[in-house]
């Protein structure tokens, strides 16, 4: 589909693979390609979606070169685009299954939290590392974490940049299940196929929109407030 994202439809399951050859940075270009692939799943009538990384990493987060550029507008646009992508996954009309083929860091971890089911491996390190690298977490990120993590993990994840792996990642709410590294994608596609066969799409999206209504409003407010939040 592009040099950053590939797309495959197998019966009713669409698989979107992120692979920039490095850490799958969620640059503006990567965000655009993921959204284009999601558009295609709708056009193709897919009944479930798998979003996966390359063999080494799910995603290392936003493109740090954009932050380093000093271009405030570009930075705000990238931040907004990333959280809009999370919102799109949280409200997508069919199940979205995340395949954490490796670490999910910063925005990569927030995207991971935006799936309906998250499959990982013992190598799937989950971390919001912002405070460790001198960044204050955006409100939108905090609201995504608040929605999916346990209370204790939420606090440790934000204030201590705590890393969660293995059973601790499941207990904290980062992942739903763990399999061997070479089985992550296969298992995610299996979960997607089962959901596609078993779930009524209208009931699925209607129910998750009700369940996530407060979080969706809070994340939206965070996105809309980014210019004020990071003014100057």
Automatic annotation (TrEMBL):
Lineage: Bacteria, Bacillati, Actinomycetota, Actinomycetes, Mycobacteriales
Protein keywords: Lipid metabolism, Lyase
Pfam families in the record: ECH_1
Family: Belongs to the enoyl-CoA hydratase/isomerase family.
Organism: Mycobacterium dioxanotrophicus
One GO-annotated biological process of the protein: fatty acid beta-oxidation
GO molecular function: lyase activity
Record carries keyword Iron: no
Name of the molecule in the record: Enoyl-CoA hydratase
CDD domains: crotonase-like (cd06558)
């Amino acid at each position: 589909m592009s040099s950053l994202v590939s797309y495959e439809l197998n019966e009713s399951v669409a698989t979107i693979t992120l692979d920039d050859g490095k850490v799958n940075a969620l640059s503006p270009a990567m965000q655009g390609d993921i959204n284009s692939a999601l558009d295609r799943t709708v056009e193709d009538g897919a009944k479930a979606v798998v979003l996966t990384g390359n063999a080494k990493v799910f995603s290392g987060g936003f493109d740090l070169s954009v932050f380093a550029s000093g271009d405030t507008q570009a930075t705000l646009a990238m931040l907004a685009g990333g959280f809009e992508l999370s919102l799109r996954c949280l409200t997508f009309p069919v199940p979205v299954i995340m395949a954490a083929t490796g670490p999910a860091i910063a925005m990569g971890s927030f995207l991971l939290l935006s799936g309906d089911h998250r499959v990982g491996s013992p190598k799937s390190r989950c971390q919001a590392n912002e405070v460790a690298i001198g960044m204050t977490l955006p409100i939108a990120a905090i609201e995504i974490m608040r929605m999916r993590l346990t209370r204790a993990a939420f606090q440790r994840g934000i204030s201590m940049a705590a890393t969660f792996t293995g059973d601790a990642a499941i207990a904290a709410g980062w992942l739903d299940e763990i399999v061997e590294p070479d089985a992550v994608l296969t298992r995610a596609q299996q979960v997607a196929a089962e959901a596609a066969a078993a779930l009524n799409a209208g009931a699925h999206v209607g129910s998750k929109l009700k369940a996530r209504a407060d979080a969706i409003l809070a994340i939206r407010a965070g996105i809309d407030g980014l210019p004020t939040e990071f003014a100057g």
